[in-house]
Amino acid sequence: MSLVIEKPGILSTIQDGGRTGFFSLGINPNGAMDRTAMRLANILVGSDAGEAVIEMHFPAPKIVFEQPCSFSIAGADFGARLNDLPIANWSSNTARTGDVLCFNEPRQGTRAYLALAGGLEIPEWLGSKSTNLAVNAGGFEGRKLAAGDRIGLAQPRLLSGLTIGPSLIPKYSRFPTVRVIPGGEFELLSAVSERVFLNEGFRVTPNSDRMGSRLDGEPLFLLHEKPMVSAAVTLGTIQLLPDGQLVILLADHQTSGGYPRLGTVISADLPLVAQLGPGDGVGFHHCSVEESIRLTGRFERDLCFLRSGVKLSR
Q: Per DSSP, what are the bridge partners of residue 113?
């Protein structure tokens, strides 16, 4: 049995924890933009934290359940309703055969995640179920979801109600200040540009996408031009573009780049960047590697406690 996409939404795709091990071949990682929301949604339904989910933007899809199944929604709040009754994010819910899930209004955030107990029946491509829209591979036939699509449920399960405590939920904002580990070329910034980077805000532009959030703000300049050899980049790398503006690389980022790397957003703050949309703002604050590791370790410990409390039933 399966889910049926009655209305597709603006951009709904299958994503998981990402595609790793193929950077040397130029294959980008893909995966969920907000990995924390994806992981929490999966744990709420007893699935592996990196299991495939449906990543949704607003307008979001209208979905019909063809059999009983537990599910959860995390990330952006789109005013989810099951059979026209409101349901909350960050909790597990159970749908019956014929139940309809829809989303009425964008209240907070840009990307929401739907996880299904037992996982989605999606074939892997290069070790991942994530959709690579650039090459039409992975996910559901390598494309965004369309009306009439049926997505199989691997092992539908029911489970007791579970909710996420506030300490684990990212503190989303339309203008967060995120912590950054200085990059290889940060010291090449002029003193004025360094001050702007660390003290001024930047706006997300409409030409942002899953590859990166392009920012608009006071232009930044290097003290002198430095010949750049393409070097590895990762999720959260902040590059300085030739026009003096910035881009934060996201889930579909390239495997290497030749622009100056001013820093990398720490893992704990990547969800805040992933939920920004056009017109939202962001500021930067330096962080040490040691502090980043401490924050990640604390989150992973709390995640283990959450996972231990999930009880499944067939």
A: 55, 74
Over residues 18-23, the mean pLDDT reads 90
Task: Tell me the residue type at 31.
Answer: G
What is the Cα 80 distance to its own chain's centre? 18
- The CA distance from 60 to 53, in Å, is 14
In the sheet that holds 62-65, the strands lie side by side as: 85-86, 80-82, 100-103, 62-65, 2-7, 150-153, 120-121
| pLDDT tens sequence across 88-138 | 999 999 999 999 999 999 999 999 999 999 999 999 999 999 999 999 999
Give the integer Cα–Cα distance in Å for 219 and 205. 14
**Which residue, 95, 153, 113, is CA-closest to 17?**
113
Task: Return the C-alpha torsion angle 137, 143, 149, 151, nearest 10.
Answer: 50
The pLDDT of residue 313 is: 45
CA quadruple 278, 281, 285, 290: dihedral positive or negative?
Answer: negative
Q: Are 26 and 16 in contact (CB under 8 A)?
A: no
Give the residue-averaged pLDDT of 50-77. 97
Burial class (CB in 10 A: 0-12, 13-18, 19+), 1: middle
Tell me, what DSSP letter sits at residue 91? B
Interatomic CA distance for residues 158 and 171, integer angstroms = 29
Contact 268, 180 (CB under 8 A): no
pTM above 0.90, yes or no: yes
